[in-house]
Recover the amino acids of this structure.
């Protein structure tokens, strides 16, 4: 199930996207209160934008603008809105998004081709280990995508290893859709209850919410802990509510494939200029085919690199590498630039670490400080030394570390109304 445009040449993909860009600009110039105002303010005439190379003539859209002018981005009357979702708020106040029937069809198409990219077919059964309620787009997207693909899906929801294993043993899913650290809890439960992991029938897992790869596409420490105990294949994904689009790995697992019919991608430096090919920059996206709330040059805050060499899976699309981190969460610590995924990866080496959060704040000198709160049932001086040694060996610096009861840390990870774990608590004063 590879769309024809994804098998086309780079030149054909570029020409296709330029047509779609012109359609988008005409649409938002008429229907979007926000972009009508911005176009007038900057004296922008959509008809003067002739191609992707002209994107630089258009202003970017920031998360702050989306928060401040949220309803001004809506392009349809309320009578055409059929679904309401909100972002998780990991980078500030949550943002509301609305969808029309056409948008839900687009969401289903996106997830169907994304799941198919990760080798899932109509003969597979998926077990969904994330919520479909609480205005969460992801769970709904997976359900709609599986339905579009004609695959089976078991809607178990998040948490509760006992219930997850009951469903696995009753319904024999071939793939799981889960946060990878939760797979460790499933492994632990199976071992405690003498369940043979490798006779479960599960072939793989679509991993959401946490990184499982290094920048060279090898498994990181978290993924290694999973696959050394459970013979399954892990697939990395990248998506967000704002994009209504996913980047899934194919069978070769060399980055998340771009769907050019759904989204235009730019990777920009701090001055909003394109970075050289292969360099890391901020992912900036323009949505295509979105009816209710299309976005033009939206800055995601995620730092990534692109890969354009040919992929033997049959797709000629650009691929996104693993997210290095969020631009907002970049840390300057003792002369070293760090992103949270690198910090998370260190702790994934320790089975004694039940959970953790990183608190970032300004010290009395005004520079960044890091406090790691680790949940562990068996803390010890030896464990503390081992963790510090791992930080020093991998990152050349050692943050402050505290041990706490795992229940205390879990409360920090899941504040009120949160739908997914908050691993970073940023107390820094923003300049």
């Amino acid at each position: 199930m590879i769309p024809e445009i994804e098998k086309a040449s780079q030149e054909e993909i570029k020409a296709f996207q330029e047509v779609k860009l012109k359609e988008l600009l005409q649409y938002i110039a008429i229907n979007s209160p926000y972009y009508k105002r911005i176009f007038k303010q900057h004296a922008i005439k959509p008809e003067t934008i002739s191609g992707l190379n002209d994107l630089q003539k258009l202003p970017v859209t920031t998360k702050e603008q989306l928060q401040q002018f949220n309803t001004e981005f809506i392009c349809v009357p309320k009578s055409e809105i059929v679904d309401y979702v909100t972002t998780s708020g990991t980078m500030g106040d949550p943002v509301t998004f609305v969808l029309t029937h056409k948008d839900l069809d687009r969401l289903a198409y996106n997830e169907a081709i994304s799941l198919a990219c990760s080798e899932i077919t109509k003969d597979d059964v998926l077990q969904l280990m994330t919520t479909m309620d609480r205005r969460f787009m992801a769970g709904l997207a997976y359900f709609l995508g599986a339905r579009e693909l004609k695959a089976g899906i078991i809607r178990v929801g998040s948490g509760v290893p006992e219930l997850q294993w009951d469903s696995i043993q009753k319904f024999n899913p071939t793939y799981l859709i889960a946060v990878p650290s939760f797979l460790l809890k499933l492994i632990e439960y199976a071992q405690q209850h003498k369940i043979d992991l490798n006779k479960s029938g599960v072939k793989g897992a679509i991993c959401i919410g946490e990184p499982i790869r290094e920048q060279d596409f090898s498994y990181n420490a978290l993924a290694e802990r999973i696959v050394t105990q459970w013979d399954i294949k892990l697939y990395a994904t990248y998506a967000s509510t704002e994009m209504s689009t996913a980047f899934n790995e194919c069978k070769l697992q060399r980055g998340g494939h771009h769907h050019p019919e759904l989204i235009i991608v730019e990777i920009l430096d701090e001055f909003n200029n394109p970075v050289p090919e292969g360099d890391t920059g901020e992912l900036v996206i323009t949505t295509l085919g979105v009816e209710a709330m299309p976005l033009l040059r939206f800055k995601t805050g995620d730092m990534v690199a692109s890969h354009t060499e040919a992929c033997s899976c049959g797709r000629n699309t650009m691929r996104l590498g693993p997210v290095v981190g969020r631009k907002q969460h970049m840390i300057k610590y003792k002369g070293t630039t760090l992103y949270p995924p690198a910090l998370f990866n260190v702790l994934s080496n320790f089975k004694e670490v039940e959970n953790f959060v990183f608190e970032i704040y300004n010290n009395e000198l005004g520079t960044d400080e890091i406090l790691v709160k680790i949940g562990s049932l068996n803390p010890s001086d030896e464990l503390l030394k081992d963790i510090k040694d791992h930080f020093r060996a991998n990152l050349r610096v050692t943050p402050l570390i505290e041990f706490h009861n795992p229940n205390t840390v879990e409360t920090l990870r899941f504040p009120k109304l949160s739908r997914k774990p908050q691993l970073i608590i940023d107390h820094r004063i923003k300049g």
The mean pLDDT is 93. DSSP finds twelve helices and 21 strands in the chain.
